[in-house]
DNA sequence: GCAAAAGTGTTTTCTATACACCCATGT
DNA sequence: ACATGGGTGTATAGAAAACACTTTTGC
């Protein structure tokens, strides 16, 4: 096999930005970096690509290692490659973001990483350019969520409309009119009303809904104009 | 300086997908690959990242080498990293797409690359996964152009509305109603009407317009819903 | 009975769409 | 005079936005 001559290879890492939502707060999962140097600083979960692994595969592996989860919504965000972004050694990082159901996440698996959930507005200083990456991920999520029903990936199988609305309000950091919200969400036909209620957050209780997965898939591309133009 | 141990570095390339528009046809610029092996096959213009170069910088350099152009619309598309995507040697490719004014492009500069413009529908077979990349770029351009005024980057300083409309029709591969198109485009306030006409494509002539650059910048984010829902 | 959250309709404005004819000019 | 492409207006339907009160129920 021929080789390209005189080219300097570099390390390629994949970093994962993992979002979760507990029904009230949008959160980010970060770890305490285990390897020297810069040990014990907060960091995104990442790793280097394996010899027989593609980028998506590496992202899935890294996500599985930290969360124990398969079949998660995962999307490539951007590649970062400043020569000095990682002071240890030149590393190009390909960044993914994941939206997970925080309830499926089990703490045991990740004890070795000292992982912790932070509210989005309280994310600590992270190593290297990781805070920039998180900001870019939020921008992309806002963009995507305005056009496609991706935020359902953050919810459990059964959820209430107030939970869903709060999620949208957190993502866009602005209040949404509740009547218009319900009208749009029901008009989308994506929700199936359940007969029982969640009584944990009010006396009256809020009906559970679940997602119509077929319609969700079918309408993924056409779920447009979801966010009110006047929001924020 | 410490190093990460036991990690295998790989080559990182940047490939550029270069689009142009001649007033009638949307086109792609590709080169005849100069280096063995797989010499003389059509390929995107690319190169490996330099030691002191970031990814955007590498993309700009590569674009400059081939087109002689600075200050071009350039956007990172995606990173590709299958272990066997380049059979010569493991290479992760970070792909950018560029939208250039084809009239600013001067043929001399790139004679050494045997560059050639192809109509988008007649792009030949390219090496590796380059055809997949081109398709992804077109998808992204359609997405972006529906929300943001990026297609102006393909036009010369002065252009006519029929040219602009044809461009949109090519990008979306579907006819657009001319009265509705003019209404929307003038409503956007982005165009400044000139007093003279382009007579090259009709006896009557079509007025030239130029872009209001300040408004273009200001409205970049809010230029929404440009493409008719019924197109195609 | 009251506090706290869930749920429900109507009106108005705006935007998108469909649609067909006259205009200007060079030959 | 005619062929060719450029340019113009209106009516209709659908979507978005603004807006406030009633319901339920545990305490």
TrEMBL record, chains A, B:
A Pfam family the protein falls into: WHD_NrtR
Source taxon at top rank: Bacteria
InterPro entries in the record: NUDIX_hydrolase-like_dom_sf, NUDIX_hydrolase_dom, WH-like_DNA-bd_sf, WH_DNA-bd_sf, WHD_NrtR
CDD domains, sorted: NUDIX_NadM_like (cd18873)
Residue span(s) of domain Nudix hydrolase: 9-142
SUPFAM superfamilies: Nudix, Winged helix' DNA-binding domain
Name by which UniProt lists this protein: NUDIX domain-containing protein
């Amino acid at each position: 096999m021929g080789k390209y001559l005189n080219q300097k290879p570099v390390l390629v890492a994949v970093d994962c930005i993992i979002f979760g939502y507990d029904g009230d707060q949008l959160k980010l999962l970060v770890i305490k970096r285990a390897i020297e140097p810069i040990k014990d600083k907060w960091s995104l979960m990442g790793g280097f690509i394996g010899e027989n692994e593609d980028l998506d595969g590496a992202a899935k592996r890294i996500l599985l290692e930290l969360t124990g989860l398969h079949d998660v919504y995962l999307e490539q965000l951007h590649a970062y490659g400043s020569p000095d972004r990682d002071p240890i050694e030149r590393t190009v990082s390909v960044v993914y973001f994941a939206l997970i159901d925080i309830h499926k996440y089990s703490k045991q698996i990740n004890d070795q990483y000292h992982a912790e959930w932070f509210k989005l507005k309280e994310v600590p200083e992270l190593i290297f350019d990781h805070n920039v990456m998180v900001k870019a991920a939020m921008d992309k999520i806002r963009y995507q969520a305005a056009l496609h029903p991706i935020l359902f990936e953050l919810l459990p199988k059964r959820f209430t409309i107030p939970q869903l609305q709060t999620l949208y309000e957190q993502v866009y950091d602005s209040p949404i009119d509740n009547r218009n919200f319900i009208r749009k969400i029901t008009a989308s036909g994506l929700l199936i009303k359940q007969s029982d209620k969640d009584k944990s957050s009010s006396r009256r209780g809020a009906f559970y809904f679940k997602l119509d997965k077929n319609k969700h898939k079918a309408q993924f591309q056409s779920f447009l104009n979801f966010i009110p133009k006047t929001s924020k």
